[in-house]
Structure formats: structure tokens, C-alpha cells
């Protein structure tokens, strides 16, 4: 793959190579940590800012709207203007928005700051991987990407525990303020130690209109779902405007010369089907982690620290076994893992129905989370591998980006829709009985999404042809989206 203008390739054993890894891990960990710690802090945020459930939903979703809508554009900006430059801009932007989050005097300011955070995340998340791709020698690139994803997974695993400790200790504002000192270390390291690179072929127009329409469609549909219990006419008009924006997005992507999301990539039936599976799976995951962090605190009486620690088994299992799961899928094909994995996760959702008032961790909570982790281990790596294998090798990076954006979009729609579908009122999180009743209606909905995804995977997924690209991100711990990939072909999968 031609990387355009870049200095001499760096070896992973060199001093520069180690600094590049440290810098990119620090940058991406800011976004990963933020996506996992905020859920644990939501009850305290609601109490301190006198916010209703809708405001808590927007605290999560404002970030996801801009991140999902702009993540593909963020990668293109790095290719054009310099990957290090855009990465540093993303780190500084993310830190400034985090500072605004930490100082927010009201829920409205916090929500606006979270949207700004998502823009920073859209710049730094693909930028960190692009820097590795552009800087390292081809013989070391796969190992470097693997280390980046592994350390990022550790950061994601630490997130809920760290978030709970901060909320119980100095307060929820430090969940956001912690990003500032990290950025103060990361940005200078990038400027000093990371070589600049760009793609000299990147001279086409940016698909800014497509990015704006995509983010606008997500924001309007999300608003309509969250505010659905309000006045009917404004909600209906907002929902209709969101659908119009989505249609306009498709029309723009069909006609512009350099689309952010080329529609012809969906000509692959398997790519289209696996992305629908992704929507179902990650909608269920997004709803599960959003509601479970609240259920453990509001209903079961857990402290933020205890609630964050309670979620560790899923991420630990992912870190320990996701690479082995990917290797197993290489041998037996992705169809079985992509069928069994969602079914295991659906079972975990139903086991969560045992988690109520004064839930015992060992007998009520832990079994569900272990089954959940086993299901995620089974399906996440094969899902990413199948996405990469379903398109031409030259478009693997694009396919990964689209799949990642789809996963995040599914999560934000689930966070918006599940409280509505489960009958959760604006003040439900202030009442243990009301929240528990809605949680018990929401978990079967999540389970049904996973069962539908399993059925679709069984019906459509086929073994990829020999020589298809394999993921370099073999170790994975993030819960809300599949790993981004660098778009380079990995070793050919073994066949029978």
C-alpha cells in the first residue's frame, strides 16, 4: 500500500519506534477510556446537574453522534494535511473539550462539550492507527498494530474501574479532567518523536457535505427517539427531517467524485450482511452497558467504584482470549462464531434479569458477565475478519472504518431508543422500582436483537477465500465498537 510522503520506515525496536507506540497508545486511550468511564458516572452527573434521563442519554450520545459521523472524514484529513498534524490537533481538541466537560455548570453545557469531544475523537482515533501504518517498516507494522490494539484494550479494561474510583473519590468531573494531563504529555511527544507523513495522492475534494449530512441524520433521529414522549408535532418533524437527511446523505455519496462512504462497497452481499449483523450486535451492546451501569447503582445499590469493577470480567476475557478466538475462526470459518457468539450474549442479557435489589455479585451479576464476555470473545474478532475479507484488499481500511462507524451509530440509536421502548420515564433513574421494571423490559429487547443477528449471520456468512486480509488488531478490549484496522492484508488464513 502506497503511503505517500513519509520518512524512512521505522523499526519497532528503535527508540523512535517505541516513542511512536507510546504516543499513539496514549492518544487512542484517551478516547477509549472516555467511552467506557462515562456510563459509570451518569447517576452522579444527573444528581449534581439536576438532569433528567434524556440529558443522561445525550451525555452519551452527543459524543457518539459526532464521532460516528466524522470518523471517516478524520482519517482523510490526516492523509491530506499530515497524519501527525491531525493527530495532535485531535489530542488538543479532545483535551480542550474534556476541560469544558469537567467545568460544565449545567447539563446543556456538558452535552455541547461532549459533542465537541466526539470531533476530537474522530481526529485522533483513526489518526493514531494511521501514524503506525505510515511510520513502521512493513515487517514490523503488523506487530506494532497488535501492540497498539492490545495496550488500547488494557486502557478500555481499566476504564470502568478508574471511572468508579474517580466518581467515588474526587468526583465525576475528574472523569473528563484526567484527559488534560494525558494530552499535555501526548501532544509534545508526538511533535518531538513522531515523523510526519501524508498521502501525496490525496488531492480530491473532501466530502464535507456527506459528513455533515451523516452526522445531522444521526442527531435528528436520536433527538426524535429521546424526546418521543414530548410534543408530537416537533418530534415527528425532527424524525422526518432525520430521514430526509439520511436520504440526502445517500444521494450525495452516490454522486460526489470522492465520497466519504463509496456505496459500491455494499455491492458485496457479505459485506452488507455483516454490517447489518454489526448493527444488531452493537446496538445490543450499547444498550446493555448503558443500562447495566445504571441498574447496578440505582437498583442494586452499588457504589460507582463497585459498579465499575463489576464490569471488569467482560473486558478481561476479551483481552485474554480475543486473539485465540480469531485464530479459531481462521480454522473453522466465521459462520459458527458469528452465530454462537450473539446467542451467548443473548443468554447473558436474560441472565441479567436476576440482577435486582441487593443483587449478590458472585451468584447474580458475575455469571451474566462471564457469559457476556464469552460471547463477545467468540464473535468480535471473527466479525472484524469477515468485514475485511468481504471486500477487495485495497479497500480493507475503508471497510473497517465503515464497520466501526456503523457500530457506534448502532450504539447511540440503542441508547436513545431502549428507554422509550422499555417505558422508562424521564425520572426513572431516580426510582429503583421504576428503573428496575424498565430494565427487565429492555434486556429481552437486547436479547432479541442478538438472536436476529445470529440468524442473519448463519444464513449469510460464508468462509472467505484464501489470501483475504486478516485483522492485525487481534487483542481487543473495547466494548462499544469493533477495532479499527490499518487496511493492510495480514497473513492468509489457514484453510482446511
TrEMBL record:
GO BP term, pick one: response to antibiotic
Segments passing through the bilayer: 20-42, 54-74, 86-105, 111-132, 144-166, 172-194, 206-226, 232-252, 273-293, 305-323, 335-353, 365-389, 401-422, 442-461
Subcellular location: Cell membrane
Primary location group: membrane
Topology in the lipid bilayer: Multi-pass membrane protein
Domain of life according to the entry: Bacteria
Keywords: Antibiotic resistance, Cell membrane, Membrane, Transmembrane, Transmembrane helix, Transport
Family matches, as InterPro entries: EmrB-like (IPR004638), MFS (IPR011701), MFS_dom (IPR020846), MFS_trans_sf (IPR036259)
GO MF term list: transmembrane transporter activity
Single GO cellular component term: plasma membrane
Region: Disordered, residue numbers: 472-496
Start and end residues of each Major facilitator superfamily (MFS) profile domain: 20-465
Protein name: MFS transporter
Taxonomic source organism: Streptomyces mexicanus
Amino acid at each position: 500500500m502506497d503511503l505517500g510522503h513519509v520518512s524512512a520506515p521505522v523499526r519497532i525496536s528503535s527508540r523512535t519506534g517505541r516513542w511512536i507506540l507510546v504516543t499513539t497508545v496514549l492518544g487512542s486511550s484517551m478516547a477509549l477510556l472516555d467511552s467506557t468511564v462515562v456510563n459509570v458516572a451518569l447517576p452522579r452527573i444527573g444528581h449534581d446537574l439536576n438532569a433528567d434521563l434524556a440529558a443522561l442519554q445525550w451525555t452519551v450520545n452527543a459524543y457518539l453522534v459526532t464521532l460516528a459521523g466524522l470518523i471517516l472524514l478524520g482519517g482523510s484529513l490526516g492523509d491530506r494535511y499530515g497524519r501527525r498534524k491531525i493527530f495532535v490537533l485531535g489530542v488538543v481538541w479532545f483535551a480542550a473539550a474534556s476541560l469544558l466537560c469537567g467545568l460544565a455548570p449545567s447539563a446543556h453545557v456538558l452535552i455541547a462539550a461532549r459533542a465537541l469531544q466526539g470531533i476530537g475523537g474522530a481526529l485522533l482515533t483513526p489518526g493514531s492507527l494511521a501514524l503506525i501504518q505510515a511510520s513502521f517498516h512493513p515487517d514490523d507494522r503488523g506487530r506494532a498494530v497488535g501492540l497498539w490494539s492490545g495496550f488500547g484494550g488494557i486502557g478500555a479494561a481499566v476504564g470502568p474501574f478508574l471511572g468508579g474510583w474517580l466518581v467515588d473519590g474526587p468526583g465525576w468531573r475528574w472523569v473528563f479532567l484526567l484527559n488534560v494531563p494525558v494530552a499535555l504529555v501526548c501532544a509534545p511527544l508526538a511533535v518531538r518523536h513522531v515523523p510526519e507523513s501524508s498521502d501525496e495522492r490525496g488531492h480530491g475534494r473532501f466530502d464535507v457535505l456527506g459528513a455533515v449530512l451523516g452526522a445531522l441524520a444521526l442527531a435528528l433521529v436520536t433527538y426524535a427517539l429521546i424526546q418521543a414522549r414530548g410534543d408530537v408535532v416537533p418530534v415527528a418533524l425532527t424524525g422526518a427531517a432525520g430521514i430526509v437527511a439520511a436520504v440526502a446523505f445517500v444521494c450525495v455519496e452516490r454522486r460526489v467524485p470522492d465520497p466519504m462512504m463509496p456505496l459500491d462497497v455494499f455491492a458485496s452481499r457479505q459485506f452488507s450482511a455483516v454490517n447489518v449483523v454489526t448493527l444488531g450486535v452493537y446496538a445490543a451492546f450499547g444498550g446493555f452497558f448503558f443500562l447495566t451501569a445504571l441498574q447496578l447503582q440505582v437498583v442494586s445499590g452499588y457504589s460507582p467504584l463497585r459498579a465499575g469493577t463489576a464490569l471488569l470480567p467482560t473486558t478481561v476475557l476479551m483481552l485474554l482470549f480475543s486473539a485465540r478466538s480469531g485464530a479459531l475462526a481462521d480454522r473453522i470459518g466465521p459462520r459458527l462464531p458469528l452465530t454462537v457468539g450473539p446467542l451467548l450474549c443473548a443468554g447473558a442479557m436474560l441472565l441479567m434479569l436476576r440482577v435486582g435489589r441487593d443483587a449478590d455479585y458472585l451468584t447474580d451479576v458475575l455469571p451474566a458477565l462471564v457469559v457476556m464476555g464469552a460471547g463477545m470473545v467468540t464473535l468480535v474478532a471473527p466479525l472484524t475478519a469477515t468485514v475485511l475479507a468481504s471486500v477487495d484488499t485495497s479497500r480493507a481500511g475503508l471497510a473497517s472504518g465503515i464497520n466501526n462507524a456503523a457500530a457506534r451509530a448502532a450504539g447511540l440509536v440503542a441508547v436513545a431508543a431502549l428507554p422509550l421502548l422499555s417505558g422508562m420515564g424521564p425520572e426513572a433513574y431516580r426510582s429503583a422500582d421504576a428503573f428496575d421494571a424498565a430494565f427487565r423490559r429492555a434486556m429481552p429487547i437486547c436479547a432479541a436483537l442478538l438472536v436476529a443477528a445470529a440468524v442473519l449471520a448463519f444464513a449469510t456468512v460464508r468462509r472467505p477465500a484464501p489470501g483475504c486480509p486478516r485483522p492485525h488488531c487481534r487483542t481487543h478490549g473495547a466494548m462499544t465498537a469493533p477495532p479499527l484496522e490499518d487496511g493492510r492484508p495480514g497473513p492468509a488464513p489457514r484453510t482446511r
